[in-house]
Amino acid sequence: MHVRTLTGCLAAALLSLPLLSGQAVAAGSPAAARVITYDASGSAEFRSAVDQGAAIWNESVEGAELRPVPAGQRADIRILADDGWPRALPTSLGRGTVWIGRQAVDEGYNTVRISSHELGHILGLPDRKPGPCSSLMSGSSAGVPCTNPYPNAAEKAEVEDNFAGAAGSPSAVAGPVPVLVED
Ligand SMILES: [Zn+2]
After folding, report:
1. Can you give the pLDDT of all 183 residues of the chain as single tens digits?
2. What is the pTM of this model?
3. CA of residue 117 to ligand 1 center, whole Å
4. What's the CA-to-centroid distance between 5 and ligand 1, angstroms?
5. Domain boundaries, the chain
C-alpha cells in the first residue's frame, strides 16, 4: 500500500515535467534527459574508469544523463571501491549503489567495462549471461580478454525504454526491485 501510494506521487510529479520543459522541446532540442547524479568520491583508484563508464552511457543514450554530483549534494548513485566482486544494488530506476570490486580487477577484468556494466544495472538492465563480448551485460561471462565497455543496440534501446516509460508508467518509475546484482 505504502509503495503504491509513493509510486503514484512520483508518477504525478514526473508527468508534470514535459510541461515545464515544453519550451526547450519546441525549440528543437531532443526530449530532456533525466539527469542522474553520481558520487565517485569513494571509488578510489577506479575514479577515472567510473567517469569513463558514465561518459559511455551519456554518448549511448538520450533518456538519461549521468553527471558528477555537485559538492554538498546527495547523489542518486554512490560508487565505491572494495575488495569483493563487482556488484550493484539498484534501489529504484537511476538510483542505487555500485561497488567496483578489486577481486575481478585483480583477475584481469577491464575496469571501464566493469564500471559501465554496473551502471547498466542502475539504469535498469539485468545480467545477460552467458553472452558475447558485444554485450555489456554479459559481464564476466565474456571472459577476461573482453574489454568492450559499450552497450549493444538492444541494451541501449532497453535503457531508452526504461526512461521513456518513466514519465507515464508507475511500474517504470519504480524501476528494479532492490536486489543485489553480483557482477
Ligand atoms: Zn551484472
Report:
1. 455 555 544 544 444 444 444 444 444 455 689 999 999 999 999 999 999 999 999 999 999 999 999 999 999 999 999 999 999 999 999 999 999 999 999 999 999 999 999 999 999 999 999 999 999 999 999 999 999 999 999 999 999 999 996 544 444 445 556 788 877
2. 0.80
3. 6
4. 30
5. 30-163
Helix (H, G, I), strand (E, B) or coil at 51: helix
CB 25 within 8 A of CB 32: yes
Q: How far is the CA of 146 from the centre of ligand 1 (A)?
A: 15
Query: CA 161, 165, 169, 174: dihedral to nearest 10 degrees?
Result: 70
Catalytic residue among 59, 65, 107, 118: 118
Provide the CATH topology of domain 30-163. Answer: Collagenase (Catalytic Domain) (3.40.390)
